[in-house]
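W.,

You were right to be curious about this one. When I first looked at the sequence I had no strong expectations either way, so I just let the prediction run and decided to look at it fresh. Below is the sequence, 235 residues in total, followed by the output.
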Amino acid sequence: MMRFLFSLMFYMLCAQSLSAATLPDTIHADYDVYKSGMKVGKIVESYSRIRDRYTLTSTTTPVGLLAVFRPEKIFIRSSGLINQQGLRPLQFSHQRERDGNKESRAEFNWDEKQLTLIQHQQRTTVDLAEGTQDRLSAMYQFMFLNFKKTQEVNFAMTNGSKLDDYHYAVTRNQKLSTPAGEFTTLYLDSQAKAGESRTEIWLANERNNLPCKMIVTDAKGEQLTQILSKIELRP
């Protein structure tokens, strides 16, 4: 029931979404990844839209010491439909270059309202509520939303192995400087309780509310920071 309510709220927010015709058809974004202040990776993402279909890809490449000890790339892909509410995933996959055992996939059946999670050749089917996203599409779904009066965002999201509910409080007009430029941002905070992992996301107002920074802090206090280094948008 809680997941249904979260997804319904996200769906209602999407109902106030911006017209897809006013949004870019192609996006290329690069991010630098830091752990404990040390650069450990680079993420290259691309989004493309052809009529009512979208494709998203993300490739993470380790750099520095991480490239020496764990020299494998991570590939994430999401594809699906675009409607009045924004992105509607159909297929999602998460792969590691050297470890097929950690591959996970998700298949979205919107007609039957079922989500199939696939990992280690095992298939698990769970209920699929409106507004559900995968971990890649969720970051690009923000550009379809109208945040004018929004105080919080709630939605369900899958990484291919599980489905979780996410809640973020929204703060406006935060200034943020990145290698890609200075932006006025929307700040999303998961407001984690003690002992929980916390996620903070900054969305660049001038770039269709695309993420320009993200910090994930685990229960032990260790942080992983992703920050925008380059972005290109084309009509």
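Here's what jumped out at me. The chain has a mean pLDDT of 91. And, maybe more interesting for your project: The radius of gyration is 17 Å.

Coffee later to discuss?

I.
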